[in-house]
Amino acid sequence: MAGHTSANGTGKAASSSRSPLQAEAASSEAARLLPQVLQLVQDFIASGEKPETYVAPWGSIPDFRKAVTLDLPDSVSTDAAGMPDETALMDAIKLVFDHSVNPWTGRFLDKLYAATTPVGIAADLVLSAVNANAHVMSASPVLSLAEERCVEGLCEVFGFTEKKPDGLTMPGGSAANTLAVQTALANVFPPFRTQGVLGVVQYLADKGKAPRPLLFTSSQCHYSLDKAAISAGLGLDSVVKVACDKTGRMCPKALEEALEQAVQQRTGTPFLINATSGTTVLGSFDPLPELAAVARKHGCWLHIDASWGGPIVFSHRAEYAGLMKGSQLADSITINPHKLLNVPLQCSFLLVRDADTLSANSLDAGYLFHSKDRRENAAMKTMGCGRRGDALKFWLYWVRYGKQGFGHHVDAGLQLATQLVEYIRSKPELELGPLAHPLFLQICFRPKQPSSADDGAHTLDPEQVRVRSKGTQFVYQELKSRRMFAVDFAPLPNDIGDYIRLVVHPRTRMDDLRTLVDQVAEIGHAYWKQA
Amino acid sequence: MAGHTSANGTGKAASSSRSPLQAEAASSEAARLLPQVLQLVQDFIASGEKPETYVAPWGSIPDFRKAVTLDLPDSVSTDAAGMPDETALMDAIKLVFDHSVNPWTGRFLDKLYAATTPVGIAADLVLSAVNANAHVMSASPVLSLAEERCVEGLCEVFGFTEKKPDGLTMPGGSAANTLAVQTALANVFPPFRTQGVLGVVQYLADKGKAPRPLLFTSSQCHYSLDKAAISAGLGLDSVVKVACDKTGRMCPKALEEALEQAVQQRTGTPFLINATSGTTVLGSFDPLPELAAVARKHGCWLHIDASWGGPIVFSHRAEYAGLMKGSQLADSITINPHKLLNVPLQCSFLLVRDADTLSANSLDAGYLFHSKDRRENAAMKTMGCGRRGDALKFWLYWVRYGKQGFGHHVDAGLQLATQLVEYIRSKPELELGPLAHPLFLQICFRPKQPSSADDGAHTLDPEQVRVRSKGTQFVYQELKSRRMFAVDFAPLPNDIGDYIRLVVHPRTRMDDLRTLVDQVAEIGHAYWKQA
């Protein structure tokens, strides 16, 4: 540690220099430091369970920025024995907790994820202590095996049993969707890997087909499909957005027409259809069997983006579990246990019906891969290399709750959502937005403009839309400044304007949801009175 | 929890159903569960500090597979109060520790990462408890601010001060390199974003240039550059591999010639040069000022893949810190604090000299982005969306060790590497492979074939190469079965065959390195005796 506090940045290293990262034995540092940090973690969780705790510490980003600055020290102070002062570190950790959104309140209804569970924290602790890279099994035996097992379990649940399936964790749903698009390109068009899009163009021309590869997805899909098209060198123009019905489901007939139009008018050659299971705004599920039939007819890869809605497959309610009927017909599926199943961020899987399709993503690396077996070399399945062992988190959840527990978890959320919709309907001063059918976990609503009698809101003129969206945004800002609930707002399909969107999580409390709805009604009432 | 153990998978949810994820208050579950897990973490660390502890629990993957199976239960058992039995979870966690590589031994010299520190574990604990998505600042105020600050700090260190720089964390070096390639494509070729590679071809044709975009990188670069070319729709044929000198550095003259040849022969139009700072096998640094001059002359984007070697910039030794001289001339830089700086996996940054270049990766998402400010919407900078707040880990390291501490850490590793090379040189029965100049942290060596007098090994015939590689692989397998050291082997440039490659980490103990070298000499001696 000699010289560690010296301002002389170019001083020669002492001949017996030791890294400051090992100023003491890790075991003694861990024994002193980690129980303190764990206490702060427990305090944060316990604080979240108090009804008076703010869900968001700041009403606005500018306020937050004014109050919080983060130091990047050149040098740090040490005690007489050369040990770095622990105060700065503990203060920094306290600062994180003091100024973070507290999802343990159960009042964070803003996004498609929420708090994790103590099991999730335990899993992260294990991952951090083991710190093994899941790129090859020899470096991370159990983490790689957990990934293999979770992939097997998920493939079975989704009906990937005809061929030998495979899959892997990805750092997020967007990354998984992107890898699906790239894998599809390489499998549908053999020259893609070596010659890229240029090779695909030649390949299509040789077959007398229109040279632009086209990707079809619904107008309500996640924007990662657009990003995947940019990433893969296709460009946004290669994405065809297909119309949805009023509940946000892709219309198979519109898909069929769009495909046939593209082929007839030679605007391009369809290669991929993306189905969304659980759209971001409304929580709708595209009809898989119908989409699969279209995909088969046109020789397209069928990908299902089930990042959000995939866990519905575990539901004990037949009408819900049936939403994933037809999943076995897909070529690939994305599912994110870090969303609906409350596994810590990030935990996302890409599954493929046919293991061999992933060989498109393999490259030799003599220093890394010492066998050709993809099961022992997960980095061969993806465009990345180093990987955190995210599957371990999901495996520990599976051990703790079982498949049936996942179903009960999902069903608890669905029941809350039903009760919430009933409660909103009971409030004449609120306007309920379009709902997924069957109802899923996102509920969109806004204060009703007092003079208006409609509730369907499908024939609004642009001025009415503007006025009502302003009402929504007022409510959103007011809720934000009160800091007791975190919700979001979103523009809804069919140009009906902005609605408050909240995501019911299975651990949300119904009492809190009622309070929130009451507040939206109250704020809206005050707003329209002065508007 | 009613029905949680029932086999009736289609049973209707009870009207008062509660998610099994909240069978009890999170605070009480955390208080009971997490101290037990933390104790296992501390035991794992302490065990790693015992000299007799195996670094790898298994000598081979088949042995591991035979001994370990991971359960995926349909249902779980509960106690009388309906609480899930904790034994299964704790057994699962113990299994992970019992069968994982133990990097705390300091004898894991196999890869470009090693054990983290208790500070790293603390950071992961905090991230897990907060579980905030760093896609927008409103969801993750402190994590987003930590990312902003770390990006500022790193940009300053690398000299990105002329324009307003920017950057973000990525889930790994490969992902960061891939995003750099995509960002370069979109900035060098404006039609890329909307029309993809097809638009680029037209754009180049209109300018009278050869239609294939070409990427130049050294023969010793990381394979993620190849993967990035596949991902971006360029294909492997668009990657031009440039020759290196004997120490693994790209030859600027060879680069210049390759570029001019491509332009003159119209095989393609160069758009990106990738420089590697710290190659995977030898740890070499490409000469940045020379490469930057070539990039400027040809209008190419200059990317530096400093995933591994980037932290050398913190060194207090001028000849080492100087290896990153010229970094300020790059357009983008990848650096992975999870490698040399022992931040937990994953922690990787992509930095750009000009913040505006990242706008190529932005897409509107009305439900997510409520301002155009990329500082408040990190997901606008990348092709992904949801993101773990990995920067927090690096910020807590920075608070704990300071910039100077990073330098002392790196220098401690360099000193060990120097001592190790001296020790290997003192052993006549060992053959040292080519070394980076100046020496970095990877050392390649193998047992010398007794009959051979050479040590440079540059004129070996294929049969000699085969014979010596076999010796290397024998040593590797024997070390593996002894389980006291984890090392890797790699084929070295210029067809001189396989060498044992070990990565000196700043916290490796010199005594252990000497023991390992002794063992390689001893195993090699026995091998050649019987060969």
TrEMBL record, chains A, B:
Record key words, sorted: Decarboxylase, Lyase, Pyridoxal phosphate
Modified residues (N6-(pyridoxal phosphate)lysine): 339
Keyword Lyase: yes
GO process terms (BP): carboxylic acid metabolic process
Cofactor field: pyridoxal 5'-phosphate
Record field: transmembrane: none
Native species: Pseudozyma antarctica
UniProt-recorded name of the protein: Uncharacterized protein
Family: Belongs to the group II decarboxylase family.
GO cellular component labels: cytoplasm
SUPFAM superfamilies according to UniProt: PLP-dependent transferases
InterPro entries: PyrdxlP-dep_de-COase, PyrdxlP-dep_Trfase, PyrdxlP-dep_Trfase_major, Pyridoxal-P_BS
One GO molecular-function entry: carboxy-lyase activity
Pfam families in alphabetical order: Pyridoxal_deC
Claim: Lyase is one of the keywords in the record: yes
